[in-house]
Amino acid sequence: MFSNRYIFIYSVVMVVIVAIALTVVAVLLKPKQEYNQRVEKMQNILVSVHVESTTKNAEELFKKYITESLVVNAKGDVIDGINAFDVEMHIENKKKSEDRNLPIFICSAENGQKYYIVPVRGKGLWGPIWGYISFKEDLNTIAGTQFGHKSETPGLGAEINTPGFQNQFIDKTIMNDNGEFVSVMVVKGGAPDSDKHGVDAISGGTITSKALEAMVRDCVKEYTVYFSKIRK
User: First vs last Cα of the chain: how many Å apart?
Assistant: First the structure.
């Protein structure tokens, strides 16, 4: 029979060994994890301008198409010294609006068009939702979107990251005829084809749909001052 002292020492030693092993594994895997996260971010940005990529060619295509990036503030002024790619929206969203760093990625397409890509992030039904929205040179018309989520319901709210839902946003506009910001509404029961500011909500996923609507509205609104300056 082992004594209580032996059992206690053995348990402590095993806990220390396991903790050290886990720490070593985490340290060794961290560079790979960070690389994978960067590549995934590049792929998501490219999807918003309809450029398909793989983990192998994402960096190459990103450098090819994303020819410029910048960070602006709520006043529409460009902030120097901040790398747009390194800005994390889950951190920025915790700040006051006037203190946020707002990244913008500019895509030069093969057709000669320029697209402005902005990140969006919000809260879904069960967890965070996020994405990227690209705008045509008028900074009013949506060229494409990419949306993702952490834990929305499969077959319902999780449909926000499907092409069928995302493609509805193409050619929708965020400004009305009077030049006022109205964003894009997600309409339960379906939006008419003639609605320039509306898309169909997900059947059975109304809460996630409306959460996405709020995310798009609140995040894109942050960029409207800068967009107005560029238009002028």
Answer: 85
Could you tell me the CA-to-CA distances from 124 to 84, 153, 194, 207, 220 in Å, in that order? 25, 10, 28, 8, 17
User: For residues 197-208, b (16+ Cβ closer than 10 Å) or e, as one string?
Assistant: ebbbbbeebbbb
Segment 133-192, tens digit of pLDDT: 999 999 999 999 999 999 999 999 999 999 999 999 999 999 999 999 999 999 999 999
Three-state SS string over 50-76 comes to: CCCCCCCCHHHHHHHHEEEEEEECCCC
Taking the C-alpha atoms of residue 141 and residue 151, their distance in angstroms, rounded to an integer, is 30
Stretches in the chain below the pLDDT threshold 70: 1-2, 6, 29
Please state the pTM of the whole predicted model. 0.86
Grouping H, G, I as helix, E, B as strand and the rest as coil, residue 194 is coil
Nearest-5° Cα angle at 109, 146 to 88: 40
Both tokens assigned to 227: 């967009």
**Closest by alpha carbon to 131, among 99, 155, 162?**
162
Where exactly are the structural domains of the chain? Answer: 45-231
Alpha carbons 65 and 185: distance in angstroms, whole number = 30
